[in-house]
Design brief:
The protein is an alpha/beta fold. It has twelve helices and eight strands. The protein has a single domain, classed as Rossmann fold (3-Layer(aba) Sandwich), CATH 3.40.50.720.
Length: 365
């Protein structure tokens, strides 16, 4: 069956399943049926990896100081958190103009928040500094750097921090059997361990402000996004860590939010990697190369993503998990209402694993 016909038949079948299975309590009809509408056309061949790139940015936030003039805000009156507020945006290597961290910093700033933006070099934050956003040099994988900036921000804010946004990230795309463990360690160091260190360092400031920790996760954590096992695992660990952290910090009125991020457009230059010369997946090397550039073909613009995320984060009771970005709602729906085997089927078709299986079967015959 041709791909187009196959996709059409799958879509029709899935829509029938949706009509059969999608039953929700009356008091949840509005919100969930709105999500259902986003799944009416299933284009599974355009799965996007959240936040692709070699590095990404991170944010911390503080509310506007009492008595200070507020900048223009799209937020309805009465939704601002009370007290003094600060936001910090920290990056593993740089906060890219047009990147997620950069856009989050701009969006919080536009809401009247005092924003602290960080990157390994302040030279990468010039565009934010021009907006009067306070910028700092920080390597989020350096414990000493983290302690230094914590002391600096604590002094500037009087010992409180309203929002800490952990958005630093490192992507590693390679078949599981071909992984370079130096890259694996770097992936976990940036995507998980750096977040843990940041949370420990800023915990006292967040408790003082009854603040919010925001960890930028990924749809790759909830589906087997082919050739991304290391990245997927690091984000899945981040999700699990965040859920446990939310429970443990609840006595202190500190909220923890996971933003399960789908496809978001980036201006990053992709560093595409080739398969090792002895890789068992060489027969589908073209599929592997196609997979690496997938997230840059479509996706939600960064400023749109940032606006949607920030609008929900600054409400009095933000959701525990927030699904934003291209494909995020669809991944939520499939993960919630379909067996896990749906991913094996769909992603094997999308990234050449079914072709690899046929070639291997032929070889063994």
């Amino acid at each position: 069956m041709h791909a187009a016909n196959f996709e059409q038949s799958i879509s029709e079948h899935e829509l029938r399943v949706v009509q059969t299975l999608y039953k929700v309590p009356a008091n949840q009809v509005k919100s969930k049926m709105e999500k259902s509408q986003a799944t009416r056309q299933f284009k599974f061949w355009h799965m996007l990896e959240a936040q692709w790139g070699t590095s990404k940015s991170r944010s911390h936030i503080m509310k506007p100081q009492e008595g200070q003039p507020r900048r223009p805000s799209r937020k309805p009156q009465g939704q601002e958190p009370s007290g003094a507020a600060t936001t910090i945006v920290a990056a593993r290597v740089r906060t890219w103009p047009g990147g997620i961290g950069n856009s989050l910093a701009r969006e919080f700033y536009s809401k009247g928040y005092r924003v602290f933006a960080t990157a390994r070099s302040k030279d990468h934050l010039v565009d934010l500094a021009e907006l009067s956003i306070e910028v700092f040099a920080l390597d989020v994988t350096s414990p000493s750097d983290i302690q230094d900036i914590k002391a600096d921000i604590s002094e500037r804010t009087g010992g409180s921090l309203d929002i800490l946004v952990n958005n630093a990230g490192f992507a590693c795309t390679m078949p599981a059997l071909d992984l370079d463990f130096t890259m694996v360690q770097q992936t976990f160091e940036t995507n998980l361990f750096a977040v843990m260190r940041m949370v420990q360092a800023f915990a006292s400031l967040l408790i003082q402000a009854k603040g919010t920790i925001v960890n930028i996760g990924s749809i790759a954590a909830v589906m087997p996004y082919t050739f991304g096992s290391s990245y997927n695992a690091s984000k899945a660990a981040l999700h699990s860590y965040s859920d446990t952290l939310r429970v443990e910090l609840s006595p202190f009125n500190v909220k923890v939010v996971v933003v399960v991020t789908g496809g978001v457009l980036s201006r990053l230059t992709l560093n595409k990697r080739d398969l090792p010369p002895d890789s068992i997946y060489l027969p589908i090397s073209s599929d592997f190369r196609d997979r690496q550039g997938n997230s840059q073909r479509a996706g939600m613009p960064n400023d749109v993503y940032a606006r949607k995320v920030v609008d929900e984060l600054i409400t009095p009771h933000p959701p525990k998990w927030l699904w934003k970005g291209t494909m995020a709602t669809r991944v939520w729906f499939l993960s919630s209402f379909f067996p896990k085997g749906i991913w094996d089927f769909l992603l094997s078709k999308r990234w050449g694993i079914d072709k690899m299986a046929a070639l291997w079967k032929k070889r063994l015959a």
